[in-house]
Design goal:
The complex is a heterodimer of chains A (316) and B (297). Chain A is an all-alpha fold. Chain A has one domain (54-312): MetI-like (MetI-like fold). Chain A is 73% helix and 1% strand. Chain A contains 12 helices and 2 strands, in the order αααββααααααααα. In chain A, strands 1-2 form a two-stranded antiparallel ribbon. In chain A, a hairpin with a 4-residue loop joins β1 (68-69) and β2. The longest helix of chain A has 35 residues, at 16-50. Chain A is flat. Chain A starts with a helix and ends with a helix. Chain B has 297 residues and is mainly alpha-helical. Chain B folds into 2 domains: 2-47; 53-296, Orthogonal Bundle (MetI-like fold), CATH 1.10.3720. Chain B has helices spanning 11-46, 71-102, 107-121, 124-136, 148-172, 176-184, 189-217, 247-255, 260-296. The model of chain B has no long low-confidence stretch (mean pLDDT 87). The chains are: A mainly alpha (316), B mainly alpha (297). The interface between A and B is large, with 89 and 92 residues.
Chain lengths: 316, 297
Amino acid sequence: MGEEKLTLFKNRKRFGIEKNIDIIFKNTALVLSSFVAIILLGIILVVFFQSFESFSRYGLKFLVTSEWNPVKDEYGAFTAIYGTLVTSFLSLLITIPLGVGTAIFITEDFVPKVFREIIGSFVELLAAIPSVVLGLWAIFVMEPFFRAFFVFLHNFFGWIPLFSTEPTGRNSFLAILILVVMLLPIVTSIARDSLNQVPKKLRNAAYGIGASRWKTIFSVILPAALSGIMAGVLLALGRAMGETMAVTMIIGNSNAFSWSLLSPGYTISSMLANQFGEADGSQVSSLFYAAFVLMILSLVVNIFAQWLVKKFSLKY
Amino acid sequence: MNSLYYQKRLSRNIGDKFFTSLSVICAMVAILPLIFLVTYILYKGGSQITPELFTLEPNPPGDDLDAGGINPALIGTLIITTIASIIAIPVGVGGGIYLAEYSKGGAFSRFIRFGVNVLAGVPSIIAGVFIYALIVSTKILFGSMYSGLAGGMALSILMLPTVIKTTDEGLKLVPNELRYASLGVGASMYTTILKVTLPSAFRSIATGVVLGIARAAGETAPLIFTALFSYYYITGFGDLFYEMGSLAVLIYNFALEPYDAQNKLAWAASFILVLSILSVNIFSRILAAFTEKTKRV
C-alpha cells in the first residue's frame, strides 16, 4: 500500500518531446486561426487586382454610367448599383416594422408562452431555407399571385416614377418582396434576443410608476434594446445587398436603367451570377470591379454594425 | 374612487389596444406567408417524389417529356459539402481553440474575432468569385477548370466563420475549474485541451458545426461558376476534377427552364433539400434542448 503511494507521487519529468508537441500544438492552432485573416485579405486583394484593368480604364465613372455593352466594350454598373441599393433599402423598410412588431409580439405575454416559443423557433427555422428554393417559390407562386396587384399599382400610381412602367413578369418589386421573406427571420430573431436581454427591473419600474404597457415598450424597452436591434438591421442590410440566388431568379435581369420598380432590374450579385460564367476579356475585369464595389458596400455595413454593437451594447 | 377601475375609454387604454392589435397584425402578416411557403414547398415537391428520382440522371432540357432523376446532383451535393467540411472543420476548430484557449484578449485575437465576423458577412457570391479567380481561371488544380473540388473550397470559406465561432463560444462555456484541475495534476496544455475541454464542449460545437454544414448544403451562389453543373453520373474519384452537379444548382438551372418537366424536377430537388436541412435543424435543436435540461438536473 505504501509503495503504491510512493509511485503515485514520484517526480516525473516531462519529456522533451512532450514539450515540443505542446509547442507545435499551440502554433498549429495559431496558424489555423490566422487563416481567417489570410482568406479575408486574400479575397480583398484578389478581387481588387482582378478589377484593376477596368478600374484604371473607367475610374469612378464606372459607378455612374449604366452602359453595359460587351460588344462595344463599354462598361458601367450604375443600373446594378442602383438596383442593389434600392432593393435592399426598400426591403428593409418593409421588414423592420414587421420584424420588430413580431418580436414584440413574441416577447410580450399576449398569448401563452408555448405558442410564442413555437412561433419563435418556426421563424428561426425559416432562416435555414436555401435562397434558391425561395427563388423557385417566387417564380411559380409569388409572381402570378402579385400580377394583378402590380397592374393596379401601375394604373393608379403610374404618375410616381417608382411605378411608371407597365408590369411585365419579373421585376424589382418582386425581388424586394422575396428579400422581405429572407430578412424577416433575421430581424425578428435578433430583435427578440435584444428585447429579451432588457432587464426585468426596467419593466417593473415603469409599470410601478403607472406607465401603460405600450408606454413602457416605447419609452423604456425599445430604447434599451435599440443598439441590438440596429445591429440586427444592419446585418440584414448586409445580407440583402449580397443576396444572390432568389433575387437573380426573380428580378428579371435587365441592364436597361429604369427608376421604376415594376420593370426588370439588376443587382450587382445577380449580374455576377448571370454573366460571370460566360464573360471574357475586359468584361471579366469589369465584373470583378462590380464585385469589388459590392464587397466594399457589405464590408462597410458589417463593420459599422460591429462598431455599433460594441459602442452601444447594454450597460445594465 | 372611479380611478381605481379600468376605464375603457381612457386614451392610454385605447392606445394600448391599438398597438397590441398592431403587433398581432404584424406577427400574422409575417408568419402566415411563411407557413404557406413551407407547406407549399413540401406539398408541391413531395408530390413529385418517385423512386426513379434517386437513381436516374437528369435529362438535358427540351428533348423529351421525361426529366429523369437527380442522382448526380444528390451525390454531388454530398461530395461538395463533404469537401467543404474536410477543409473548414479542422481549420475552424483549430482556430477556435487558439482564440478560446491560448489567446489572452490581445490585439491579435481581437483582430481575428473581428475578421471572423467580417468574413461571415461577406456575400456568398464573392466567395465564388474569389475561388474562380484563384483556382478556376488559373487551372491550378492539375489543369482542371470547373470542378467539384473548387466548389467545395468556395463553400468551405462560407462554413469557416460558423465553425470558428461555435468552437470559440463552446470552449468559453467550459468552466475554468476543469482546466485548473487538469493542469494541476500535471497535464500539459494540449492534453488538457484534447482530453478535457474539447470533449466537454463537444455537444455544443457539434451542434453548431452540423448547422453550418446544413447551411452550406443549400448554398448556390458560390457553386454556379466554381463547380458548375453536370448531367452525368459520378463514377469515380477522378470526377472530383470535373464539373459537378449539386441540388442547389440543379434547382437554379431547372427553375429557369421553360419546360414543365424540368420545373417539376426542380421542385422535387427543393423538397429533398429543404426536408433534409429542416430535419437536421430540428434534430439538433431538440438535442441541444435535451442536453441543456439534463445538465441542469
